[in-house]
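Thread title: Can someone regenerate the structure for this chain?

I was given the following input by a collaborator and told the matching structure tokens would be attached. They weren't. Posting the sequence so someone can regenerate them.
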Amino acid sequence: EGGGVQASISPLALAPQLALSGLAWCASTIAYYGIVLWPISLGDGLRLQTTLGALIELPVYVAVPLLSRRLGPRITWVIFLAFAAAVWSSLAVIGGGGAAGTAMLLAARLAGTGATTICYVASNDAFPTAARGFGVAVASCCGR
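Best answer:
Regenerated them for you:
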């Protein structure tokens, strides 16, 4: 005996959701860590740069719940991922130097933070209740 509802959901039946969620988690992680680890000169000293970098992320932590309530978690995730892709594409053209480059790097950090923040909630919605833990765990592993 045992298994219950969870035994009736095959991982193969979840393959489309797992693939899409895993890909989106991977993109979110690349956007976030790719930009956080990019050297941005915001001031003298490591402590000041780290503090300013963290403060830049605060508006996202306010915007994500508001956007998620209004538009839904999936749409919010798509918006942040699309914004990150647009910023990264622009960075490839203009480079990361100068004031424009620094502004683009900061915008990319905002987009990456938003995508990484909302992915936990949005990926939950992609799976049936009985498979949410499994689905989010696999998607999260794809992003790591």
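The chain has a mean pLDDT of 80.
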